[in-house]
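ingest -> validate -> predict -> emit
validate: passed (alphabet ok, no gaps, 212 aa)
predict: started
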Amino acid sequence: MGRRSIKESRQKEIIEAFYTIAKQEGLENASIAKTAALININPSLVIHYFKTKEYLVYGLIEYILDQWLLIYKTPASISHDPQQRLLKVIDNIFSQKWNTLFDDSVSYSCYSLAFRDQKVKENYKVLLDSLRGNLRQLIEECNQQGVLAVKDPAVVADTIFVVVDGAYYYLSLVSNKQEYKRKLAQYKALALQQLNFVSSASGQSQPKRSRR
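emit:
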């Protein structure tokens, strides 16, 4: 199953309004009528694009992926340096920036539907595979440049996101800011271990040869 980006401006406006309502009142309480009212349009226009609330949820999952993929945006100044791009992406993933890209309550509410709705399950699989695939490509670029020698980039990318998924699920329960930062740094270190990055005396992360 392929992934379709939300490009049409009106569709995106509707999805963003639906997300706002879901964040404020919960996904179960978000509706076509409330979404239309928030952006002052007729509910029939929402139905024109999405037919039912179910289709709005499908669009919302696409929107989640569009937001999460922002993690892979890196400065133009390092565009030709795969090692620095990979390190920047790891920094982005294990930062509060990642956790503010999308509201946890909405994300987990959408995810819970995967246990009852096959299409939601398929959409989430595409979403999570896309995140892993982008990281795999970065690792492969580092391999090609000789800065890493990761035997199976797909396995390592998957392992890192297993850490990510578990980390943010647990951290959603942590209220103490110092504990949150400490745990986040701990999980980031685990991810870097998968790539065999270590800290040099200068404080910059450097790659070691990976046996994976």
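The radius of gyration is 19 Å.
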